[in-house]
Amino acid sequence: MFEYFSKVIIRSIRLDKSLYKDPNTFGELSLYYAGLIMVLDGIAGAIALSTLYKTNIIFSGVTALLSWMVWGTLIYVIGIKLFPDPDTNASFKKILITVGFAHAPGLFRFFVFMPSLVVPIVFLTQFWIFASLIIGVRETLNFKSNFKSAGVIIIAFLIISIVSLSFVMDKINTMSIN
Known about the structure:
Elements: H1 2-13, H2 30-49, H3 57-82, H4 92-102, H5 115-140, H6 146-174
């Protein structure tokens, strides 16, 4: 069981597109493995950022699960409902597994111990996750183009960013300044 889990992580980190065409990738335990990767990615991010300021590690793990659902939902709606290719046919479960596995590069954030490395490592791993998402979405949704897959990811990212920024700005506006 752990051997398969570690192979999935390694294949995702290597940006192995065959991971998403392998029938074993979407087996019974895959959804749990994808969720575990997301939680570990959230915890790794919290640990990395804790070198700069105090973070809540448990909250970060739970937030990562929420983020997983949001990414999965947006990719499903944008990639399957709004802009599908003729061969596009994937379940929501497959999208969730793809998104979870694509976050494996974020596990490198566990190795950030120096505050001066936090920002470069977080940015590097985030771009690596985006590359993994583009490859995973392309293969899972049977897109013919990396550009279309990248477009789906960018649209989802922009929606998440705008909603997140709106939430933060609303919280800032409601805070009383003394």
